[in-house]
Amino acid sequence: MSQTDTQQGTPTLSLENISKLYASVPALSNVDLTVLPGEIHALLGENGAGKSTLMNVASGTVQPDGGTIVFAGESIPVLTPAIATRLGIAIVYQHPAVLPDLTVEENLRVALPASIFMPRADAKKIATRLLDGVGLTVSLADRVEDLTMSEKHLLEIAKAFALNPKLLILDEPTAPLGRESVDLLFSRVRDAVAQGTSVVYITHRLAEVRELADRVTVLRDGKLRGVLDVDKVTDEDLLALIIGRKLESTFPPKATAATTGEVNLSLTNFTGPGFKDITVTVKRGEILGVAGVAGNGQSEFMKALAGLESFTGTVDIGGKTMTPKDLLKDSGYLPADRHHDGLMMTLSVRENAAVSALTKFKRLFFVSDKRERDAVAHSLAELDVKTASPESLVSSLSGGNQQKVVMARALLSEPRILIADEPTQGVDVGARAEIYRILREVSASGIPVVVNSSDAMELEGLCDRVIVMSRGHVVEVLQDANLTETNMIRAAVSSTTESVKVVGRTRAPRQTGFGRFLQGDYAPSSLLIGVIVLLGAFILSQNGRYLADFNINSMLMLATSLGFIALGQTVALLIGGIDLSVGPLAGLLVVIASFFINDDSSGLTILIGFVLMLVVGVVVGLVNGSLIRFAKFTAIAATLTLYIGLQGFSFLLRGEPGGYMNAVITGALKAKVGPIPVAFIVLAALAIGLEFALRKTRWGWQLRATGSDEESARRVGVNVNRTVVLAYMTTSFFAFLGAIMLVAQLGVGDAAQGVGYTLTSITAVVLGGTSLLGGRGNFVGTLLGAVLLIQALNAIVFLGLDEVWQYGFQGLLILVAAILYSVARTRKKGAVSA
Amino acid sequence: MVVERQSAKKLTRRTSKGLITMAISLVILLAFSWALAPSSVSGGAVSGMLQFGAVLAIVGLGQMLVVQQGGVDLSIPGAVSLAIVIVSHEPDGDNNKLFAAVLLAFAYALGAGILNGLMVGRLGLNPIIATLGMNALLFGAVLGISGGTPRTTVDLLRGIGGGATFGLPNSLYFAIAALILVSLITKRTVAGRRFEVVGANSFAGKAMGLRVRTHQGLAYVWAQLLYCTAGITLAGITAQPTAYMGNAYLLPSVAVVVLGGTSLLGGRGFPVATVVAAIFLGQLDQFVLALGVPFAVRTLVQAAALAIGVAIYTVNWAKVRARFAARTDAASAAVQS
Known about the structure:
The complex is a heterodimer. By secondary structure, chain A is an alpha/beta fold. Chain A has a 6-stranded mixed beta sheet, with helices on both faces. In chain A, strands 16-19-20-13-21-22 form a 6-stranded mixed beta sheet, sandwiched between helices. In chain A, strand 17 (about 360-365) and strand 18 form a beta hairpin. In chain A, helix 4 (about 105-110) crosses helix 27 (about 700-710) and helix 21 runs antiparallel to helix 29. The model of chain B is unreliable at about 1-10 (pLDDT under 50). By secondary structure, chain B is an all-alpha fold. Chain B is about 75% helix and about 0% strand. Chain B has a two-stranded antiparallel sheet with strand order 1-2. In chain B, helix 12 (about 250-260) runs parallel beside helix 14 (about 295-315). Chain B has 15 helices and 2 strands. Chain B has one domain: ABC transporter involved in vitamin B12 uptake, BtuC (Orthogonal Bundle). Chain B has helices spanning about 1-10, 15-35, 45-70, 75-90, 100-120, 125-145, 155-160, 170-190, 190-200, 200-205, 210-235, 250-260, 270-290, 295-315, 315-335; strands spanning about 165, 170. The longest helix of chain B is centred in the first third of the chain and has 26 residues, at about 45-70. At the A-B interface, helix 12, strand 18, helix 24, helix 30 and helix 32 of A face helix 6, helix 9, helix 10, helix 12 and helix 14 of B.
């Protein structure tokens, strides 16, 4: 089929008249793109020209507002990621969709169809071959969390190649890669093309276009600027197409010789994570701009100037050499990501604006209401912030006014330097002009102003001096007549520098098998076995009857009911949630059983009882999951509601204990082999089975993927909503199994029982080494945790200890375990980032 | 119309949605109580309700501080019980030893709070685990001190905690004092204001150079001091307190915080609304009790109140409305074209 396509020269992909609006701002207007079979098609344009949006349309992650998509001659009315994958479209995102808590192998397996890893026996070999194909030299068993940025990118690229796609989209793949990896990547791309794959290659670098591409499409402002053959066009012509966006805002007049003064900001060999050896001086009244393709160290540079990163070299402001601490205190910082780092969305405009200057409003012990209001009102008026009232929530403001609130905060703190990272991103045209005016006024008042922007036109209009950064280096310093958009873009796109290693991202020394084990999921389990054995030996030395059949049996029976419930809790924690309702649910199910499973009940009644228990359990899980996913309750709020409610139902059904359980049933549940209860054997087998499923089946990978990183999980094709709701249903199902054991253990319906299992189950799971952050954990550890807990409680009886120990021991166990595991994890993280 | 509403708001701080919701709910509940079960609004019933409601209010204020930092404190049962046990056991019938016992209780609370704060703030432990473990340790201390047997509170404490002044139970005054203190500190001091900012967005707090982890840790310290106050008051109210009285306060404490409008994700706290919510739950108890329905119904009503309370704040009603509006718009646009 594909052969005939190639012969006839039907385009692999043809996008026609694509339009896309974001909040009525056009991101793409009537763009065409045709990718021929076996060609490498470069997509070129400035930051925000619409390249990524166009490719998101082509991969189905963004639905266009207009236009048609034709793939291999077939018109596609609605393209979704799933359909795109089926058609053979693979995309490598700028931010790799990898799951930090899963291993390299699991990342491949969860993202790729099972058919790639057939025959099963060769799965590892196939996975290794995929890694070799992109020159990624990590072990399949390495956790992706430990990989460097470029290794993660290579993994992402390996996933795309594995699909043998008909169309491969690469979105700035070389940004974090070293030269060797780039060469290998290019040769892989050429190989793929030789086999008939078409490639769309998004880049900012002309050199790469020349090296790799056959044809190039240039976008500007969401509009098509031209489609050209690479070998028939000069760099100058390409540049002319890229730049020249229409000027939308007016800029205040620039500094002149008359308005500038002595140097008041000078950086010397300023070096930090992600940028190197920046030396520049700025005069009083001048605004310093930072240009370059986004992600080349600019944000890190700005953060370091704000005192939020460590640095070497010197920063002089107005003749004073600043330490990071000084900068933290004396800088006004406008973060690029306003929502994430800049504003408290749930607080008012006044509170957002005042927070950095509170000490200035203090009168005796308290913040003076009047001073604060006056100062904030004054500042809001000066910056012309449009808000209904200073008491309105900041989230009710438009993007431009929100940005002005952040500026008001920075200015109210009377900074010695103002650092504005992307100050006009997401800001409407009118507010932009005002932000430029404010920045100019601040600069004129003698406070150095540094502006980073991905919009070169903006820097040309606003700044008096611009440094162009590429891969962490300053490649050009522009001023006066040279300070033009063209020069900035030329410097950025024609640079051939190599990345500065971001200090925070170098890799920890490669681990041996043993090291990996120590930091792996099973270290807690071995620790627990050790503790269980030691504790057992100690008790035995004190009391010879400890290992008597009776005691072993009763301990394991107790451990079985707890064990089942804790296995369920493990599932909830693995997806990054928690289920507080398991205890009351188990209690309610026992109460339900006490109405059906009695000595005088018929077989049918007993069966109905069990079915009813199962149904109620699963429904509770469904309610939990739905509240969390669809009503957006936090896991605690949702399951706490159920906790209280289920307890109420139990008491409603059985105000007083009553309803003796059927002796035959309880007898059967208590069946044993030697001293070991059969139920415990079932539990252990189940734990091992689940453990296997967690590591080796798609169910397990999806569960951990969701807990590890929800967004990435969604991008690799996991149905997150379904996974979460099913997980809570699974948790409830295990509470049902636990309840069956409680039927035998309690022998009577009692609404007061069961509730305590919530906290005990969490304790057991934590002891087993499952993280409450989600994504990593294990069932075997949970089982051992449950056994250890029961053993500890039993020990208190056997050693004739005080009741104090019952609690003290449990408390110490959980805290020591939690601290130990968490310290081990942070130490390891430290090793990666140090 | 919009303009009018805006100008009306201009100079006053906004009354929180939580407070409005809780105040209206309380009024409705009182009306129902009066109409359906008059005995639940009799003088004795109200004063009894206020007495215990006040204790829940103080505990709730502590929980609120922790929730403001995106945490949750499961050590309330142990903390409240420990305070009760210390002030009822240590004096052993001797009024003169009460003061020392109270100091000792606060010393324990301070220690527990600092430990919780260090574990969560410094070591980055999950609040659930840290406070769960702390709760067990505190119960260990409870049993260590009491040996599991209750002891009668001294007369002095019974007078202070269980007495009444100007016709209102003393515990209510304690709750009001705690409310004023918490409100003043969080809303009017520099540290308190920063505390709220860190809770609302710790990343922004970090970008501003605030001491994020210290603020997060301190929440647990303040909370423990409040639990301790509540425990001492409770010991005064009940003549012979048991070692497990704190258990009854954990879930309601989370409920009143949520009902008061403080988000479990952290951020701004609503102390007044939290206290009103505590009174609301107290009156709900009285009402259901007076109606003569089973005790269990009360729990169900609590669960329903909690679910509705959370849904008011979590479900994005604006979005739901917008979706409906968009649907109507689309429909009318279709008609027009």
